[in-house]
Protein backbone atom coordinates (compact mmCIF):
# COMPACT_ATOMS: atom_id res chain seq x y z
CA UNK A 1 0.00 0.00 0.00
CA UNK A 2 2.79 2.45 0.88
CA UNK A 3 4.53 1.75 -2.38
CA UNK A 4 1.34 2.37 -4.40
CA UNK A 5 0.76 5.73 -2.69
CA UNK A 6 4.39 6.75 -3.29
CA UNK A 7 4.19 5.85 -6.99
CA UNK A 8 0.94 7.76 -7.38
CA UNK A 9 2.44 10.83 -5.69
CA UNK A 10 5.53 10.56 -7.90
CA UNK A 11 3.40 10.34 -11.02
CA UNK A 12 1.43 13.43 -9.99
CA UNK A 13 4.62 15.36 -9.30
CA UNK A 14 5.98 14.47 -12.74
CA UNK A 15 2.73 15.44 -14.44
CA UNK A 16 2.73 18.80 -12.69
CA UNK A 17 6.38 19.45 -13.50
CA UNK A 18 5.83 18.81 -17.20
CA UNK A 19 2.94 21.24 -17.38
CA UNK A 20 4.62 23.40 -20.04
CA UNK A 21 5.87 26.42 -18.09
CA UNK A 22 8.54 28.46 -19.91
CA UNK A 23 9.85 31.99 -19.55
CA UNK A 24 9.21 34.36 -22.43
CA UNK A 25 12.94 35.00 -22.80
CA UNK A 26 13.78 31.31 -23.03
CA UNK A 27 10.95 30.73 -25.49
CA UNK A 28 12.12 33.60 -27.72
CA UNK A 29 15.73 32.42 -27.58
CA UNK A 30 14.60 28.99 -28.79
CA UNK A 31 12.62 30.22 -31.81
CA UNK A 32 14.74 29.63 -34.92
CA UNK A 33 13.69 32.82 -36.72
CA UNK A 34 14.37 35.22 -33.83
CA UNK A 35 17.44 37.41 -34.23
CA UNK A 36 18.87 40.39 -32.37
CA UNK A 37 17.05 39.44 -29.17
CA UNK A 38 17.38 42.22 -26.64
CA UNK A 39 16.12 42.30 -23.09
CA UNK A 40 14.53 45.62 -22.20
CA UNK A 41 13.29 44.54 -18.77
CA UNK A 42 13.28 40.84 -17.83
CA UNK A 43 11.20 41.43 -14.68
CA UNK A 44 8.46 43.18 -16.66
CA UNK A 45 8.88 40.69 -19.53
CA UNK A 46 9.83 43.30 -22.13
CA UNK A 47 11.92 42.22 -25.11
CA UNK A 48 12.88 43.55 -28.53
CA UNK A 49 13.71 41.22 -31.40
CA UNK A 50 13.71 40.77 -35.15
CA UNK A 51 11.70 37.90 -36.58
CA UNK A 52 12.85 36.89 -40.05
CA UNK A 53 13.19 34.19 -42.63
CA UNK A 54 16.20 33.83 -44.91
CA UNK A 55 15.98 36.37 -47.75
CA UNK A 56 13.51 38.61 -45.91
CA UNK A 57 14.07 41.97 -44.31
CA UNK A 58 12.47 40.79 -41.09
CA UNK A 59 10.00 42.33 -38.72
CA UNK A 60 11.10 44.34 -35.67
CA UNK A 61 8.93 43.49 -32.68
CA UNK A 62 8.71 44.77 -29.11
CA UNK A 63 7.06 42.31 -26.76
CA UNK A 64 5.69 43.08 -23.34
CA UNK A 65 3.80 41.06 -20.79
CA UNK A 66 0.54 42.99 -20.71
CA UNK A 67 -1.06 41.19 -17.77
CA UNK A 68 -0.01 38.73 -15.06
CA UNK A 69 -1.78 36.50 -12.59
CA UNK A 70 -0.94 36.74 -8.89
CA UNK A 71 1.36 33.72 -9.45
CA UNK A 72 3.46 35.76 -11.92
CA UNK A 73 2.12 33.92 -14.96
CA UNK A 74 1.29 35.78 -18.15
CA UNK A 75 -2.33 35.92 -19.25
CA UNK A 76 -1.80 38.64 -21.88
CA UNK A 77 1.08 39.51 -24.21
CA UNK A 78 1.41 42.56 -26.45
CA UNK A 79 3.41 42.56 -29.69
CA UNK A 80 4.16 46.08 -30.89
CA UNK A 81 5.52 46.73 -34.37
CA UNK A 82 7.30 49.88 -35.42
CA UNK A 83 5.25 50.29 -38.58
CA UNK A 84 1.79 50.09 -40.07
CA UNK A 85 0.57 49.03 -42.61
CA UNK A 86 2.64 45.89 -43.10
CA UNK A 87 3.85 44.31 -46.32
CA UNK A 88 2.62 40.86 -47.30
CA UNK A 89 5.88 39.31 -46.06
CA UNK A 90 5.67 41.21 -42.76
CA UNK A 91 2.07 40.08 -42.25
CA UNK A 92 3.21 36.49 -42.70
CA UNK A 93 6.00 36.96 -40.15
CA UNK A 94 3.61 38.61 -37.68
CA UNK A 95 1.19 35.72 -38.10
CA UNK A 96 3.92 33.16 -37.45
CA UNK A 97 5.22 34.78 -34.27
CA UNK A 98 1.68 35.41 -32.98
CA UNK A 99 0.67 31.79 -33.55
CA UNK A 100 3.89 30.58 -31.89
CA UNK A 101 2.94 32.49 -28.73
CA UNK A 102 -0.70 31.38 -28.96
CA UNK A 103 0.38 27.74 -28.98
CA UNK A 104 3.14 27.90 -26.37
CA UNK A 105 1.93 30.52 -23.89
CA UNK A 106 -1.84 30.24 -24.24
CA UNK A 107 -2.22 26.50 -24.98
CA UNK A 108 -4.37 27.05 -28.07
CA UNK A 109 -5.33 24.11 -30.26
CA UNK A 110 -3.05 23.98 -33.36
CA UNK A 111 -6.16 23.44 -35.51
CA UNK A 112 -6.92 27.17 -35.03
CA UNK A 113 -3.64 28.23 -36.69
CA UNK A 114 -5.00 28.77 -40.23
CA UNK A 115 -7.93 30.87 -38.97
CA UNK A 116 -5.62 33.02 -36.83
CA UNK A 117 -3.21 33.59 -39.74
CA UNK A 118 -6.02 34.55 -42.13
CA UNK A 119 -7.63 36.92 -39.63
CA UNK A 120 -4.35 38.65 -38.77
CA UNK A 121 -3.48 39.16 -42.43
CA UNK A 122 -6.89 40.72 -43.11
CA UNK A 123 -6.43 43.29 -40.32
CA UNK A 124 -3.67 45.14 -42.17
CA UNK A 125 -6.11 47.56 -43.77
CA UNK A 126 -8.95 47.27 -41.27
CA UNK A 127 -10.39 50.16 -39.32
CA UNK A 128 -8.52 51.39 -36.23
CA UNK A 129 -8.78 48.03 -34.55
CA UNK A 130 -10.58 44.75 -34.28
CA UNK A 131 -10.69 41.72 -32.02
CA UNK A 132 -11.72 38.12 -32.41
CA UNK A 133 -11.93 35.07 -30.20
CA UNK A 134 -10.22 31.85 -31.24
CA UNK A 135 -11.62 29.51 -28.65
CA UNK A 136 -10.43 30.78 -25.26
CA UNK A 137 -7.87 33.16 -26.83
CA UNK A 138 -8.77 36.70 -27.82
CA UNK A 139 -6.61 38.42 -30.42
CA UNK A 140 -6.81 42.18 -30.72
CA UNK A 141 -5.24 44.12 -33.61
CA UNK A 142 -4.86 47.87 -33.21
CA UNK A 143 -3.49 50.45 -35.56
CA UNK A 144 -1.60 52.86 -33.34
CA UNK A 145 -1.67 56.63 -33.63
CA UNK A 146 2.02 56.73 -34.57
CA UNK A 147 1.87 54.34 -37.56
CA UNK A 148 2.48 51.21 -35.55
CA UNK A 149 0.50 48.00 -35.30
CA UNK A 150 -0.16 46.33 -31.95
CA UNK A 151 -1.35 42.75 -31.49
CA UNK A 152 -2.55 41.65 -28.06
CA UNK A 153 -3.05 38.01 -27.12
CA UNK A 154 -5.28 37.51 -24.07
CA UNK A 155 -6.82 34.47 -22.43
CA UNK A 156 -9.18 34.11 -19.50
CA UNK A 157 -8.64 31.32 -17.03
CA UNK A 158 -5.80 30.22 -14.79
CA UNK A 159 -2.44 29.49 -16.42
CA UNK A 160 -1.15 26.10 -15.26
CA UNK A 161 -4.60 24.67 -14.55
CA UNK A 162 -6.49 22.50 -17.03
CA UNK A 163 -7.22 23.18 -19.78
CA UNK A 164 -4.50 25.88 -19.83
CA UNK A 165 -1.52 23.69 -18.98
CA UNK A 166 1.08 25.36 -21.24
CA UNK A 167 1.86 28.90 -20.15
CA UNK A 168 4.61 31.51 -20.04
CA UNK A 169 6.25 33.37 -17.19
CA UNK A 170 8.22 36.64 -17.35
How would you briefly describe this protein structure?
With 170 residues, the protein is α+β, with helices and mostly antiparallel strands.
Which features would summarize this protein structure in a list?
single chain; 170 residues; alpha+beta; 7-stranded antiparallel beta sheet
Structure description:
This protein is α+β, with helices and mostly antiparallel strands. The chain has one domain (21-169). The protein has 4 helices and 9 strands, in the order αβαββββααββββ. Helices cover 31% and strands 34% of the residues. The model is unreliable at 1-18 (pLDDT under 50). It starts with a helix and ends with a strand. It has helices at residues 2-17, 24-30, 88-106, 113-122, and strands at residues 21-23, 34-41, 46-51, 59-68, 74-81, 129-134, 137-143, 149-155, 167-169. It has a 7-stranded antiparallel beta sheet with strand order 2-3-4-5-8-7-6, with helices on one face. It has a two-stranded parallel sheet with strand order 1-9. Residues 1-19 form the signal peptide. Keywords: Signal.
Amino acid sequence: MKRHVFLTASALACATASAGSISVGRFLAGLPNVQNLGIIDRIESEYAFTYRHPNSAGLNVNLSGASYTNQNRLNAIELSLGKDPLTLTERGLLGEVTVAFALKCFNINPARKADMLAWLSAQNTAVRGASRAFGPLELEYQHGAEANAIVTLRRNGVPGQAPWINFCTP
